[in-house]
Amino acid sequence: MKKSKASDIAILAIFIAIMVVVQVLSQIVYSMWPLPIVPTLLHIPVIIGSIVLGARKGAFLGLVMGIISVINSTILTTPLSYVFSPLQPIPGTNHGSLWALVVALVPRVLIGVFPYFIYKAMKTRTGAAIAAFVGTATNTVLVLSFITLFFGQYTGMTFTNLIQLIVTGNSIAEVIIAVILTAAIVPSLEKSR
C-alpha cells in the first residue's frame, strides 16, 4: 500500500513537472510564433493524467493547471490577464475580480475529471481520443462561457462571439493535438502500469 502511494505521488510529480516544462516552452515558442493560432497545450498532461491516474488525481492536476494559469496571468500581463488573475485590474477600474479564479480553476479541475469517466467506459484507443476531445471541449467551452458570463461587459463578448470563438482555429488545433497525443500516449502508459 505504501509503495503504491509513493509511486502515485512520484507519478503526480512527474506530470506536474511536465506541465511546468510545457508552460515554459510554450511561452518561449509562442513569443516567436509567426501564426495567429496559438493553441493551449497545458491541458494535455491533465487529460492523460486523469485517464491514467483517475479522476481525483486528474482533478488535482487540473487544479495545478489553473494555478499555473493564475500565476502566468499575474506575472506576464496581457490585455486579458484580468480574466484569469484577480490581481490584475479590470479595465477602467483599479481592482481585479475573484470571478477570475472561477474562470481559471473550475474548467481546469473538470478537465481532470471528465476524461477519466469517458475512457473508463471504453478503454480503447478510440476511448482515449474521445476522452481527449471531451477534456479539450470542457476547457474551451467553460473558459469562454465563464469569460462571457463574468466579464462580458468588459470584453464585449456576446453569445454569438462565444460560439464563433469555440469553433475557431485555436479550438480546432487544440482538439486535434490533444486527440492525437492522448490516443498515442495513453495505451503505452496503460500497458506500463
TrEMBL record:
Keyword Transmembrane helix applies: yes
Keyword terms: Membrane, Transmembrane, Transmembrane helix
Coiled coil (UniProt feature): none
InterPro entries linked to this entry: ECF_trnsprt_substrate-spec
Pfam family, one: ECF_trnsprt
Residue ranges crossing the lipid bilayer per the database entry: 9-30, 36-53, 60-84, 96-118, 130-151, 163-186
This protein's name: ECF transporter S component
Organism: Lactococcus muris
Lineage, broadest ranks: Bacteria, Bacillati, Bacillota, Bacilli, Lactobacillales
